């Protein structure tokens, strides 16, 4: 059953994976670039917040663009704009210019990933959605690991690294534009208010915010903290890659498990474990030991790697869990719901780094894990309360969409024609919300 829905969606999954390489590489490259030019934690937080603020704007504007021009054109426009911003970044090291470029890049990336998320979510039923989203996350997770390999290999050549990111962005455009896969129809629209989403799936909204704040904080602050502790760029890239390794190892089991139970229990479990691990991290203060250690640091290196694998394996799938949980109740408004949740994720991505920048003068070495511990603890408490207030249940859904197969991916053209002929005019309402 999973394969039936997966094959027509492979083009968008692979294209999104290519963009994930460029996006993730930039996420690690920016703090290393700032550190190499004498910057501090506050500047890293500023650039991260600029990117996330642009991401928020892209979520808001992206829905209108998708509805006007369609999924494929919106994705291609986002990837092309990302390529332009990378090209401009090659010519300057000015902090404010970089902040502006990251802002625009955030909007472009948000639009293309909004298109990808909505396409995948609208085109799959609740019974397999968790696994389909997990496969997508596995694909982008593999590419995120590849991005850290690129950082490791080309850390000393900034220009070449940016050129590779530029090339990958262009490849994503070519791949998606050449496919004959049929995207969901975007004409019919039904309004969905954010208040309604918050009332129906508050755990999904809260979890998306926490996921954005935690993952962005990890990806922006961990590289700088390692660099500040005297860790080489290659070792930093390797350790950051462990966040993505964790995502790769945990995503499919978490997604498959989520299809068999109330997803709020999994959200609760992830939040509790993240809170416990970050609290233990605060007590151990490993970066301090790294700075003062004499001789071999293999033991500390291994502990940090394992910790990052587990944190990545729990924090990255958290957004997918929230997205799948939201679609249990609002599948008929897929694009609107996807955009709202992506917007909330981006809001967390803005507030997380800004909060770390504000906390840095008081907690210079522990701001990120402290923030993660507090937010994950609050999410766990809120989810537990919601489980008590609204007992576990699977809502009954009438699937109001058709998953169109793709003639460009090994399916006969007549199969596509039959699917289009049998589709209801109301099959694809398009309002939309790593």
Overview of this protein structure:
The chain has 434 residues and is an all-alpha fold. The protein has a single domain, classed as MFS general substrate transporter like domains (Growth Hormone, Chain: A), CATH 1.20.1250. It contains 16 helices and no strands. It has helices at residues 2-6, 10-36, 41-69, 71-89, 95-122, 126-154, 158-178, 194-200, 202-228, 233-258, 263-284, 286-292, 298-330, 334-359, 367-389, 413-422. Helix 2 (10-36) packs antiparallel against helix 3 and helix 3 packs across helix 9. The chain is globular and about 50 Å long.
CATH fold node name:
Growth Hormone, Chain: A
Please write the string of helix (H) and strand (E) elements.
HHHHHHHHHHHHHHHH
- Going by helix content, strand content and strand pairing, the class is mainly alpha
Q: What's the CATH class label?
A: Mainly Alpha
Largest sheet: none
Give Rg in angstroms.
Answer: 21 Å
Q: What is the CATH architecture descriptor?
A: Up-down Bundle
- The CATH homologous superfamily name equals MFS general substrate transporter like domains
Strand tally is 0
Average pLDDT score: 76
How many discrete domains? 1
Helicity, as a percent range: over 70%
Which overall shape is indicated by the principal axes computed on the Cα atoms? globular
Q: State the low-pLDDT regions, or none.
A: 395-434
Number of helices: 16
Q: How large a portion of the residues is in β-strands, by DSSP E?
A: under 5%
Distance between the termini: 24 Å
